[in-house]
Amino acid sequence: MRPSPAGTAAAPVSAATSSACTPPPAPSRRPWACRRCHRLDETARRAPATGEKEKADRRGLSEPARETLQRAVRQAAALATDTTDFLNRLRDAGLRVREHHNATTGAVDGYAVALPGDRADHGSRPVWFSGRTLAYDLSLPRIRERYEPALTPADITRAHTRIREAAVLLARAGRTEGAGDVAALGDLLAVAAAVSPAAVRDKVRAAATRFEQASRAPGARTLDGTARTRFKAATRALEHAPRTARGGGAPAVLNLLLALVEAIEAATAWHRAQHHRAQTTAAAQAAALLREAADLTIAPARTTAPRTSPRTVRVTPAPERGPAPPPPATGVPPRPPTGPHPGPGPGPGRSR
Fold it and tell me: Residues 299-326, buried b or exposed e (16+ Cβ, 10 A)?
C-alpha cells in the first residue's frame, strides 16, 4: 500500500505498479545437461517408417524392405572395385536395379534398388529406394570413394594381423584420417556379418548394424589413411573366408572376432577423443555385441567334453521283426533246451 496523507485512506496499488516495484525473480540455475548439436545429423541410421513395418508384417517378412536393402547394398559397396562391379553385385544378390544416367555424358550417376515382389499402387510398380534414401553414405558418389581396385585377396590368417595393425594405427590417427579409417571398419564389419558362421551371425550382424553410425564421422575426412588400407585388405580376405577358413574352424572365427573387438575399441577411443558422443556410444555397443559373439564361439568347446562312461541304450524290437532277443548275460549258465521249441519261422540268417 502506498503511504497516504494524514486523514485520508490509503489508495490501492495497481497490478502494473506492483509488478514494477517487485524485483525480478532470480534466474534458475537448474542444470539441463544440454549440448550443442549439428544442424543436420547425417550420421544417424535411417529407420523404417511405421507403414514399412506394417507392410512387412502383412507380407510375413522378418524385417522391412529398407533394412534388407541397406544390408545388401552395404555389403556390395564394401567389396566392389568399380561401378560396374557394384551394380553386378547388387543383381547377383537378387535385387532389382535401376540405373540413372547423366543426360549429357550418358555415364551412370545414380542408382535405385527394389526387392522382388515389393510393389505399390496395387501391384502396378516396384517400390524403389535410391542409395541416399537408404543411408547418407550409400549414394553413388560416396560408394565410389570405397573402391580399391589394386587390392588382392589375402589369407584369412593374415586378415587377423591386418585388423590388429589397423587398430593400432587408428588409435593414433588424426581427425581427418580417422574418419576414413572408421568408414573402412564399417565396411569390414558388414562383410564379416555376411560370412560369419550361423552360430554367431545374428550377433555379428547386430554389431555391424550398431556400428553404422560410428562409421559416419561428422566433418571432413580423407581416405588415404594407412589403417584404411589394412581394413580394406582384411575385407577382401573375408570375401574368400568360406574357402580359406574351412580348415581353421572355431579358432579362426574366434581370432577374427577378437581382432574386430580390438579395432572397434580403437574406434571408440578415437571418437571419444574427437568428442563424438553418438558415435562413441554406438561403437561401444558394437564392441559389446562382438564380445557376446566370441563367448558363443568358446561355449561349444566347453560343452563338448568327452564322457567318462559310455551310454548304453537297450532297444527291444517289435515281435513281428523276428525272434525275441536273448536274455541278458548273468552269472548263472542258461538251461539247455529239452525239446523242440515251436518258435517262429526261420530268420534271415537260417536256412530252410
Answer: eeeeeeeeeeeeeeeeeeeeeeeeeeee
Lowest-confidence region among 28-32, 59-63, 119-123, 319-323 = 319-323
Cell of 211: 556400428
**Roughly how many angstroms between the first and final C-alpha of the chain, as a whole number?**
132
241 pLDDT exceeds 50? yes
Query: Do residues 207 and 286 lie in contact, with contact meaning Cβ atoms separated by under 8 Å?
Result: yes
Match 537378387 to its residue by C-alpha cell.
Answer: 94
**Cα angle, residue 103 at apex, residues 98 and 105 outer, rounded to 5°:** 100
Q: Is the pLDDT of residue 192 over 60?
A: yes
Which pTM was predicted? 0.70
Count of all residues that appear for the chain in the document: 352
Q: Is residue 245 pLDDT above 80, yes or no?
A: no
The whole-angstrom separation of Cα 58 and Cα 54 is: 6
Q: How far is the C-alpha of 260 from the C-alpha of 64, rounded, in Å?
A: 28
Residue for grid cell 566370441:
294
3-state secondary structure of 126: strand
The string of DSSP codes covering 223-278 is S--HHHHHHHHHHHHHHTHHHHTTTT-HHHHHHHHHHHHHHHHHHHHHHHHTT-HH
CA separation for the pair 26, 43 (Å, rounded): 40
Nearest to 269 by CA among 171, 178, 181: 171
Residue 190 has pLDDT above 60, yes or no: yes
